[in-house]
Amino acid sequence: MLSRITGTLRSLVPLPAWWIVSRQMDAGARRLLDVGCGQGGPIHYIRSRRRLFAVGADIFSPYLRQHLDLGTYDGLVRCDVRLLPFAAGAFDVVFCGEMLEHLEEADGLALLASLERLAARQVILTTPVGRCDQHPYDGNEHQAHRSAWTPATLRLFGYRVRGSGLRGMGGLIARENSPLPDWLRLLANAVWLAATPLSYFLPEIGGSMVCLKEVAPAPAVAAARRGEDGVATGAGVPDER
Known about the structure:
The relative contact order is 0.18. It is globular and about 45 Å long. The protein has helices spanning about 1-10, 15-25, 40-45, 60-70, 105-120, 150-155, 170-175, 180-200, 220-225, and strands spanning about 30-35, 55-60, 75-80, 90-95, 120-130, 160-165, 210-215. It is an alpha/beta fold. The model is unreliable at about 10-15 and about 225-240 (pLDDT under 50). About 35% of the residues lie in helices and about 20% in strands. The protein has one domain (about 1-220): 3-Layer(aba) Sandwich (Rossmann fold). The chain is built from nine helices and seven strands. Strands 3-2-1-4-5-7-6 form a seven-stranded mixed β-sheet. The two termini are about 30 Å apart.
């Protein structure tokens, strides 16, 4: 019950990370790739507010089967995010939510380049600010955190950065890893939300950050993939439903 209350509050109160993602997403986007889609929390929120053709990519089969049963995505692909099997510029927006920290730093840097290659308009990613320890759960070894990222690092790669929550609290608010009883976790979520209006502008004190980068595909790719209405066609987008 408290988990449902927390989820409702975080979706209604302005400035949580998912709200920032939805508000900052390119208004003309029609096709979205969700890299490391996991259990799909952000996409439920985003698709409740706008129409998108969405493809989810993840390596963990139980999550993908769950999405297949629920019809969360228009397409699902099981793959290692380090080897994304999509054509350049295949999606208007490439979203990578709470995924970067699950890779070693070198693999994370390579992933950033891959995300920008696949996006025709925009890359959006969320990741904890600094180190946020997390151990595997759901029988999924890939849930462990292996690297830490800062606003300064993402800015070096051309991202605009907004903050959410309060640094050091990430491990307290997540149901899967929090050591707190439910009632205290609800209080921790309230503190997280209360801090966000400040950390939004000062992401260095935030617990999570939303990083956005507008990209432009190579002219040859853009010309080859443009349909009659000026929107990228579906070529190169596997749909493994």
